[in-house]
Design goal:
With about 575 residues, the chain is α+β, with helices and mostly antiparallel strands. It is about 30% helix and about 20% strand. The protein is globular.
Length: about 575
């Protein structure tokens, strides 16, 4: 026993001597002395290798001594010999930090010739996570990966003042605006706006919420679990006596932190959140199963039943296949329990999985990068985040080839639907919450404008119909399908979009929406912007800022300027670029 302790102490001393005698390298790579390239580094490296060999030999001798000596009850408490010092390596200080977040976004929607493809069908989207995630990159001085940019989530991050419905008989109102595109006056923008009726917080139905919190080791960062706990604490502060909240934590295994508890027992709820600590690997599948079990236990008929999953998305043990998790979530959706996902942090953030799970769970996905964003999503927008007023909302626009030569939908690439899916009530689509706004933009090329992008076909196409009859003054016909939360059959809303409605000057709302769409396009390469550049985007946004209660539009202008400086400095300064996988 004494020999073991002496051997361990000698090994520790040798290790400390090795660390003190080797000059530290700021990059983790051995640095040669001035005037003697490689000599000092080689000598230091040889010395370290020699000391490592001595320590390994000492460890082998110690192990042999233990095998030869009689075993005693105290031997299990002897401190182990320290491992040999690792060979240090790190990237060069000038190398950009590699961020291996996971994104998946198809390429931009193509320009369509109306005579060949007159119908455009897609599912609405109220997610905003892409914008706040990209904002975090820009604030850190990094260019975001192009696949992290989803134009519709940029556009829908902002409110545009679309008019609300006059009554709750129809849960939302649809409006349109057509005006010249700011980057090319020969083309036009069509803005489709949807506004759901609002519900004051004090008249929301009882809520049964399950906070499903990722407490794995990957969440041990200031922008992850600590921010997550403060964010959910803000939501807990809004709960009422008739509400119920449960907390499930998951790491290597899932565990119940707080059983269903009345919302007015805030001290218990906050104390449970405060106890959460990050450790272990990430078994998201077990966590989701336990969370839904708690949601079923406290299920409220006619109320809000929702799991709120807060994670960096790094599911690495248990059920890790995205398709299996989606199937599990979709099955629970049919039982009346929705899923909202909140993304946190960088480095291994799985944006793709978080968005897919929210889609499958009839919920929404947001990314929380600041306390201000947490307040926006979980406090200011609590009604729309929690209470669904319309399910499976689909938009279908049939363009008139007599008046519209070409069109392009901005964003919604991963929300496109087949034409036949529009009337198929078994096909899942997006949902609208109380007070939600949804905005979609199309870029149109009118017949006779001379701004067509598609070259004529060699063998031609069927001649466009002549402008006569009812179609003479129609640009398009808009159809929208939705289901009420408690109904299985969809309802149809339709309205024509008239050519006479084309404005000569876009409204401030359309100009700001156009600047946001242009910003998203510029971050992805700027292939649809004509002669517009970063300065034009910033100037248009600044001039159309309008009412800006929370300063979000002013912040947007600042982000455009940050992005402009990053792109302009690429050749000289090489700003860090995030690497998506």
């Amino acid at each position: 026993m004494i020999r073991n302790a002496l051997a361990a102490a000698l090994a520790t001393a040798l290790l400390a001597t090795a660390c003190r005698s080797t000059p530290p390298s700021t990059s983790g790579i051995e640095v040669a002395a001035p005037g003697e390239p490689g000599v000092a580094a080689a000598a230091a490296h040889d010395a370290m290798r020699a000391r490592q060999a001595e320590i390994r030999q000492l460890q082998r001798s110690q192990a042999a001594s233990r095998r030869a000596a009689p075993a005693s009850a105290m031997d299990s408490f002897a401190p182990p010999a320290p491992p040999p010092p690792p060979v240090a390596y790190a990237p060069h200080p000038s190398s950009p930090p590699a961020v291996t977040d996971r994104y998946e976004r198809p390429g931009d929607n193509p320009v369509q010739r109306t005579a060949e493809q007159p119908v455009s069908t897609f599912s609405i989207d109220v997610d905003t996570g892409s914008y706040s995630n990209v904002r975090g990159f820009l604030r850190r001085g990094m260019r975001p990966p192009a696949d992290a940019v989803r134009a519709e989530e940029f556009i829908n991050y902002f409110a545009y003042g679309h008019p609300a419905p006059g009554s709750r008989e129809t849960p939302f109102r649809v409006t349109t605006e057509v005006a010249p595109a700011p980057w090319d006056a020969r083309r036009h923008l069509l803005m489709v706006g949807i506004k759901g009726y609002d519900v004051p917080k004090d008249v929301l139905p009882p809520a049964n919420l399950v906070f499903l919190v990722d407490t794995s080791g990957s969440m041990d960062s200031d922008d992850k679990l600590p921010l997550l706990k403060r964010a959910l604490s803000g939501l807990a502060g809004q709960l009422r006596p008739q509400d119920r909240v449960s907390i499930v934590a998951y790491a290597g295994t899932a565990g119940l932190v707080l059983p269903p508890t009345p919302g007015d027992r805030k001290d218990e709820i906050l104390a449970a959140l405060d106890r959460l600590q990050a450790h272990g690997s990430t078994n998201g599948g077990d966590g989701i199963r336990l969370a839904y079990a708690m949601a079923r236990r406290a299920f409220v008929e006619g109320g809000v039943n929702r799991v709120i999953l807060a994670t960096d998305g790094d599911f690495n043990v248990g059920t890790v296949d995205g398709g299996s998790l989606e199937t599990m979530v979709a099955d629970q959706r049919r039982s009346g329990i929705a899923l909202t996902t909140l993304g946190f942090g960088t480095g291994n953030y799985n944006d793709h999985l978080a968005e897919r799970l929210a889609d499958a769970g009839d919920g929404n996905h947001a990314y929380v990068d600041t306390l201000q964003e947490a307040r926006k999503v979980l406090v200011e927008e609590m009604s729309s985040t929690l209470l669904t007023i319309a399910r499976d909302v689909k938009i279908q626009i049939e363009f008139n080839p007599a008046t519209v030569a070409e069109y392009r939908l901005v964003g919604y690439e991963n929300r496109m639907l087949a034409r036949e899916d529009f009337a198929n009530d078994r096909v899942d689509a997006g949902d609208i919450g109380a007070g939600h706004e949804v905005t979609a933009l199309y870029e149109l090329t009118l017949v006779g404008s001379g701004a067509e992008r598609l070259p004529p076909l060699r063998y031609g196409t069927a001649a466009a119909p002549s402008a006569g009859g009812a179609a003479a003054n129609e640009l398009a016909h808009l159809r929208l399908r939705y289901k009420r939360p408690d109904e299985a059959d969809s309802r149809l809303v339709e309205t024509p979009i008239l050519r006479s409605a084309i404005g000569t000057t876009p409204s401030a709302s359309l100009r700001f929406a156009a600047s946001v769409a242009a910003f998203a396009d510029a971050l992805r390469g700027g292939t649809h912007l004509g002669d517009w550049d970063w300065s034009d985007i910033a100037a248009t946004a600044r001039a159309s800022r309008g009412e800006d209660r929370w300063g979000l539009r002013a912040e947007f202008v600042d982000l455009v300027e940050r992005a402009r400086r990053l792109v302009a400095g690429t050749a000289a300064d090489e700003p860090p670029v995030a690497i998506a996988r």
